[in-house]
Amino acid sequence: ERKSALNLPEENLLYFLEKNSPALEPWQREILRIVRIVAQYFYPQRQTQVMNEGCATFVHHTLMNTLFDRGMIDEGAMLEILKNHSNVIFQPAFDDPRFSGINPYALGLDLMQDIQRIATEPTAEDRDWFPDIAGSGNWRETLLDAWANHRDESFIRQYLSPALIRKWRFFLLEDAAGESHYKVASIHDERGYRKIRSALADRYDIGANRPDIQVADVDLLGDRHLRLQHKVKDGILLEETGCDATLRHVRRLWGYDVSLEGVDAQTGATLHERSARQGGE
User: Fold this and answer.
1) Which of 49, 161, 243, 249 maximizes the CB count within 10 A of its CB?
2) Residue 153 · residue 202 · CB < 8 Å
3) How many other β-carbons are positioned within 10 Å of the β-carbon of residue 155?
4) From the centroid of its chain, how far is CA 28?
5) CA nearest 119: which of 106, 101, 132?
6) How distant is the alpha carbon of residue 232 from its chain centre?
7) 214 pairs with which residues across the strands?
8) Closest of 22, 15, 12, 13 to residue 219, by C-alpha
9) Which residues on neighbouring strands pair with residue 273, listed in sequence order?
10) Per-residue pLDDT tens digits for 21-32
């Protein structure tokens, strides 16, 4: 009954603290509300980075080339545009000191140009993988539908083609905790395309990659001990230093003891517990 009255479990920690913290003054709750709303506003931005940057780069590149083809801008302007464009979509190799992951501008642009290619100049492979759009000529309609209805994860899962997997030389590494070496589980061949596409899409699924931490229980009429729960996936625990520092901040906002229990997402078994208490750790 206590949990039901508080709508527990609650995944929005800032919302719960804002509404239920015994320690916050009204002006402090307002600050917490502002932080929460701003964070919620930017959450979808993180889900559509490849699509946002890819759309902007694709549209700009398409418009500028169309204007040049029609003689509406000269070669000097086009060279400047191409220089800036090349800098934006530059993808350092994995062993380059500048490498920091996949460039969303480059991947997004390639995905959208590949859809254009599939719709206008499909191969037999494209017709097998994308029968609905291959050779249709309606690449604008396909892109408009994708921009309106997809986020990065679903867009990649739907439209990453074998041709693009080969171009990017994608392959899948398997990392087992008990092994000292990585295993190449899939490469860019007929058997590996779907696994690579699915794995890359999973990387852009924020809900699956962010730690799942929720308010599990609290007795507001008792000791007011706030109990958080972390659902551990694939045995990956939280880094202890950052976890403890965050718990101390939560305790300051809550005003009473706070603990975090890590439980296996599959079995429910307790894997670890951290806490932040008044007057100590």
Assistant:
1) 161
2) yes
3) 23
4) 30
5) 132
6) 18
7) 229
8) 22
9) 261
10) 999 999 999 999
